[in-house]
Amino acid sequence: xSLSAILESQAxxxxxxxxDVQGDLLGYGFRTAGGNVHVVSEGGKIVGSSDLxxxxxxxxxxxxxxxxxxxxxxxxxxxDDLRQFLxxxxxxxxxxxxxxxxxxxxxxxxLDHPGKYVILxxxxxxxxxxxxxxxxxxxxxLGPKGTGKSQSLDLLAALSRDGYKSRATAAVxxxxxxxxxxxxxFDQANSMSPEHVxxxxxxxxxxxxxxxVNMDKRGVPYEFETFGPKTFAGIQPLDxxxxxxxxxxTTTPASRTLEPVGSHDPIFADLRAQSYRxxxxxxxxxxxxxxxxxxxxxxxxxxxxxxxxxxxxxxDLWLPIEVMMEMLEVPEEDRVEARDYYQRSQxxxxxxxxxxxxxxLLVLAGLVGEKSTVSVSxxxxxxRLPGWTAIKLGKRLKSLALLAREPEREDRNHVRMYEVxxxxxxxxxERYAIKPTTGGDxx
Length: 443
Known about the structure:
Elements: H1 3-8, E1 14-15, E2 19-22, E3 25-32, E4 35-42, E5 45-49, E6 53-56, E7 59-63, H2 73-76, H3 79-87, H4 94-108, H5 114-126, E8 138-142, H6 149-159, E9 163-166, H7 170-180, E10 183-186, H8 194-200, E11 209-214, E12 220-225, E13 230-234, H9 240-243, E14 246-250, H10 266-295, H11 297-303, H12 313-327, H13 332-350, H14 355-368, E15 373-377, H15 378-384, H16 390-399, E16 408-409, E17 416-421, H17 422-431
Parallel strand pairs: 1-7, 8-13, 8-14, 9-10, 10-13
Antiparallel strand pairs: 2-3, 3-4, 4-5, 6-7, 11-12, 15-17, 16-17
Helix pairs in contact: 4-5, 4-10, 5-12, 5-13, 10-12, 14-17
């Protein structure tokens, strides 16, 4: 292709082969023994293609060639149903699809708050259209052993788009996200490595990427995307850097007999097929709803009045659920239950900050007040923090990113002078809803 032809082509023509959205276009890709199959919807017009490109009216779209294979078609969508859909595109209503997914959750998982079911259904269906959102909430199933966490992950694996339950290394996870844009389901998250935490921390935001050194190619940097839906399950709270990206779903022992989750259950296969159908038929209607609720905070808060109390990340993480409730025509009473539970989950998530870190923030809040920075010696801080050591203090200040500059050593007794960033302290106090003590001394 000539240079002029390349430069005149539209950037929006090139799509990720697994799932991609551009404007009101939604495309999926699957692997078969005979080659890849792609299904594309643009403004409700749907076409299938086995080639690297497809024609949509006067527009040609083509797919990137990525390292790694796509998910198997037969694991996601019955090919007979796909043929019928391409011949005559049709889908369940949002409400009918919501009811079917909720019924599946209630058969297989026993939860103690009705709002949890609403959030889980909306989150699972969000995975079929997730690239349209700028931020995604993670889910965190937290509870003792035997309370249904693994069963919940199994159900998400069966109902989500390309649900992938794994404890893979950070490098393998990166490859899966890059090639298949999987819905990652991470079990036993309490033993998560620092590499995993680093990989996942910013991956709730669109455009999040990471660069590692490719040792197979003599140190050549390898960049890959990390954005995508993720769920964690464990018996302990998540690292704080992940906890405030999540909607916490606490689990308790089941009060009734539950049906096991079979990986080849035909009911799940039908629900996945109906989910793909619904997304392809309705995606063009979803785009303006995302734009409306995402760009107009006053409108969003008028729909969900408690949204006024959410700021920044908390608000951004809730909006995809609010959009999905609107698109799925979720009954108003169910929406109220979901919003009520989200309020509770955010309170619980904030409470996961370690108690000794809260003590440190309270001391710092009392010292900085409304100042931009404040200088304080390690000796002064240690007098206010019984049981702390100089090493622990230095590491915690650095891990919280609360130092305006590198500390200076004051004397031979290893006393250091810290310049604390006031805005950083106030931001953490606000994020975790910590009530600081007034006055110059927080102790």
